[in-house]
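User: Reviewer 2 asked us to show a designed sequence for the structure in our supplementary figure. I'm pasting the structure tokens here. Could you produce the per-position amino acids so we can include them in the response letter?
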């Protein structure tokens, strides 16, 4: 049973976080999810998902999920003294979904002024799974260098690049395929119907 951290920062693509929480909350392999939402993360959620999330209330988890949950605990982003700020607290993996270029920069520089950046820093120092899902286009040289820097420090860069080989029929199909890739790297079993099965016969 895993204990995971999900952080939502202010890049476009709040739906990736929403679907990740949906699947992790439903997973029998996941015992607990600590959720942290940055101020701009909450802004983007309100903008893109039209949910009145503040980033500071436990009810944000229910709003994102669309149902009650006992598995997700919301931790305030300013509380750098929260459990996940310490390496002594057991945490099996962390995903920053989506990951803004701002948060990427903080993590790459090792500057831990909020709980998201501190928790990510802890994952790297403890050699635990840290999945960053950056979203920006185009990238400048600073973004690219920061990605390389965190990858070399042990993070996994899993950009929000949807794929089409599984023939998605909806936005949800596109999003979920990427979310399943995140789950795979967090070591959580996930549906595999959309995984590449090899080339189809030409008539299909
Ligand atoms: C609607 C909206 C969309 C944004 N989209 C992106 C984005 O896709 N990528 C990005 O790096 N920043 C994006 N930003 C800018 C970040 O939110 C901003 O840099 C912020 O300071 C990041 O802080 P955080 O990492 O603490 O959330 C967006 C901002 C808004 C308001």
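Assistant: Here is a per-position design you can include in the supplement:
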């Amino acid at each position: 049973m895993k204990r995971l951290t999900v952080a939502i920062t202010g890049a476009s693509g709040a739906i990736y976080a929403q679907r990740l929480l949906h699947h992790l909350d439903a997973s029998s392999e996941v015992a607990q999810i600590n959720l942290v939402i940055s101020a701009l993360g909450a802004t983007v959620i309100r903008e893109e998902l039209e949910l009145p999330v503040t980033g500071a209330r436990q009810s944000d988890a229910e709003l994102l999920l669309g149902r009650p949950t006992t598995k997700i605990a919301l931790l305030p982003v300013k509380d750098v003294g929260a459990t996940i700020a310490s390496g002594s607290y057991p945490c099996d993996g962390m995903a920053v979904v989506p990951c803004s270029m701002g948060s990427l920069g903080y993590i790459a520089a090792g500057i831990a002024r909020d709980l998201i950046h501190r928790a990510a820093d802890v994952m790297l120092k403890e050699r635990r799974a840290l999945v960053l899902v950056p979203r920006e286009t185009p990238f400048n040289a600073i973004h690219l260098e920061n990605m390389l820097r965190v990858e070399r420090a042990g993070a996994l860069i899993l950009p929000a690049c949807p794929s089409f080989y599984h023939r998605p029929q909806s936005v949800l199909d596109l999003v979920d395929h990427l979310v399943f890739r995140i789950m795979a790297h967090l070591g959580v079993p996930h549906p595999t119907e959309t995984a590449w099965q090899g080339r189809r016969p030409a008539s299909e």
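For the response letter, you might also mention the following. Residues 9-12, 38, 40-41, 43-44, 47, 100-103, 135-136 surround flavin mononucleotide (CB under 6 Å). Strands lie at 2-8, 30-37, 72-74, 93-99, 129-134, 156-157.
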